[in-house]
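Could you help me review a protein record that somebody else here produced? What it holds is a sequence and that sequence's fold in token form. I have pasted the whole thing underneath without changing anything:
=====
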Amino acid sequence: MSAAPLLETRRLVIRRGDRITLDALDLQVPAGCVYALLGGNGAGKTTALNALLGFVTAASGQALVDGIDASRDPHAARARIAYLPENVALYPYLSGIENLRYFCTLSGLRLSLDSARALLRAAGLPREALARRVGGYSKGMRQKVGLAIARARQARAMLLDEPTSGLDPSAANEFARGVLAARDEGLAILMATHDLFNALQVADRIGILRDGRLVAELQARDVAHDELERIYLRHARAADEVSP
């Protein structure tokens, strides 16, 4: 990667008690790149995101957001990140537009009605759903509101934690289009996921975590789905063999 990374970990070690949850993790995500981080439960994917958000402190090494050490200045690091969790917490009695404008207000942003509509439509939310209460939305529609909220913050980087979990193939495909639109606008995007198909659909680069270690790194354009599945399962079986 020739561009300077907006998201970067340098020999990052995270400990939880006596256990190492990230072990000398090195990864880089420049502007205009989607990096998919694959791995099973407990592999360290969410821990990597939390380190960049400054929610966990590095035992050694660094988690950097636009050059800012997230352990030393978590507020400045988070100010440059848009974060989309697996389950987006929205107010069910407010509409999609109202939720978007409310969360922008909490971040100190004033968003016009037209801008809110445009962001939600760009995220893939149907026009007829914009003014409906979120309580009647599917999970896929809620994720699209979350994506619009993330993009409204005009952050330089985005973290996605299992964003397509529980979505049907159509909803996952629509969500992928929104992620690619954000990438094409120049965001650096790090996505933790179990979804191999979605990883190949949106990622430029793919890393596989096992027991907190980056055990494989691939260019998405160079690997087919069946090959990625074989590589992923090989590492998963290796982890099972060494487990007590």
Helices lie at 45-53, 74-79, 96-106, 113-122, 139-152, 169-184, 196-202, 225-242. The chain has two domains: 1-80+156-244, 88-154. The longest helix spans residues 225-242.
